[in-house]
């Protein structure tokens, strides 16, 4: 089971600190979905949300469909989704993308997966989707990774060293590198290139992928359609976001004695990471103890959007 499905993982923290998705992304997915449909199709059909997490996508896209099925393997995520969801047209259930036996043949008009498609076993998922997605139905899988603070390229190597570095970023403290679940993380970082919809079942395959320059933070080459995961965050919110990483959950399990300062300890790997991030920008450091958490920063992530249509 993925770390996200373990009882020790904070589904509430995920719901609180993970960035949401902008309307432009949903509009692009819906435009692709409706491209070959005739008549007034607004608010019709069934949406299937795989790896729904706390139900963000299901709630955002529900107005465009008559029914939504939101599925996640984690009991904690399902609990969060049910707490946050009041729309009666959204059915939330625990289950995996690999087992869609509860759905009838050709019963799904659109299937989506946000920040989840890199975990799927496609030897099982592709046949399952071929059965349940109707002719002309659509698929949209998307993800984001490896944030950059725009205008502060000096912070990027620090994040990379703590998150992916093979050496100890601080003597006596291991990085998050060995705690990433593979091949899932590598699939996401490589923009789903190994996720290839079978030609026998899918057509009109469209892949839009982009990564910011991690040396300069320059966004000038970013295609407009790829620059959808960009947020203004407080540094304290970014710290909370990093603590939602599955790799950090694994790190905590390996080093239970390393308590965060908020927990009354001397500091964990994320505390040490942000010590260096703040120290790298004199204006942030000059704010003094804790006040850096209120600094707002322009943050951007690398993105990938894969879409296809059922033959």
From TrEMBL:
Q: Which GO terms describe its biological process?
A: methylation
CDD domains per UniProt: AdoMet_MTases
Q: Which SUPFAM superfamilies match?
A: S-adenosyl-L-methionine-dependent methyltransferases (SSF53335)
The Methyltransferase type domain extends over 48-141
Instruction: Provide the GO MF annotations for this entry.
Output: S-adenosylmethionine-dependent methyltransferase activity
Determine if Methyltransferase is one of this entry's keywords: yes
- UniProt entry keywords in alphabetical sequence: Methyltransferase, Transferase
Q: State the InterPro entries in the record.
A: Diverse_substrate_MTase (IPR051052), Methyltransf_11 (IPR013216), SAM-dependent_MTases_sf (IPR029063)
Give the matching Gene3D superfamilies: Vaccinia Virus protein VP39 (3.40.50.150)
Q: Can you tell which superkingdom this protein's organism belongs to?
A: Eukaryota
* Pfam families reported for this sequence: Methyltransf_11 (PF08241)
Give the family from UniProt.
Answer: Belongs to the methyltransferase superfamily.
Q: What is this protein called?
A: S-adenosyl-L-methionine-dependent methyltransferase
Q: Which organism is it from?
A: Rhypophila decipiens
């Amino acid at each position: 089971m993925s770390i996200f499905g373990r009882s020790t993982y904070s589904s509430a923290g995920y719901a609180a600190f993970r960035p949401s998705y902008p309307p432009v992304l949903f509009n692009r997915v819906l435009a692709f979905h409706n491209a070959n449909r005739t008549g007034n199709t607004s608010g019709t059909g069934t949406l299937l949300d795989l790896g729904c997490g706390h139900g963000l996508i299901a709630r955002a896209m529900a107005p465009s469909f008559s029914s939504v099925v939101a599925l996640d393997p984690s009991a904690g995520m399902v609990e969060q989704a049910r707490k946050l969801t009041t729309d009666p047209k959204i059915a939330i259930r625990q289950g995996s993308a690999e087992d869609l036996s509860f759905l009838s043949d050709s019963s799904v008009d659109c299937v989506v997966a946000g920040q989840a498609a890199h975990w799927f076993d496609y030897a099982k998922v592709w046949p399952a989707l071929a059965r349940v997605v109707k002719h002309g139905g659509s698929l949209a899988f998307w993800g984001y990774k490896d944030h950059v603070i725009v205008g502060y390229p000096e912070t990027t190597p620090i994040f990379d060293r703590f998150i992916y570095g093979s050496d100890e970023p601080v003597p006596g403290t291991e990085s998050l590198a060995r705690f990433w679940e593979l091949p899932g993380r590598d699939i996401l970082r490589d923009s789903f290139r190994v996720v290839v919809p079978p030609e026998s079942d899918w057509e009109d395959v469209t892949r839009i992928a982009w990564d910011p320059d991690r040396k300069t933070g320059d966004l000038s080459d970013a295609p407009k359609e790829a620059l959808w995961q960009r947020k203004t965050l407080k540094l304290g919110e970014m710290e909370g976001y990093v603590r939602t990483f599955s790799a950090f959950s694994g790190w905590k399990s390996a080093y239970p004695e390393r308590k965060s300062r908020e927990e009354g300890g001397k500091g964990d790997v994320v505390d040490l990471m942000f010590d260096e991030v703040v120290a790298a920008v004199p204006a942030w450091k000059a704010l003094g103890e804790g006040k850096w958490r209120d600094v707002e920063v322009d943050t951007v992530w690398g993105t990938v959007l894969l879409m296809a249509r059922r033959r």
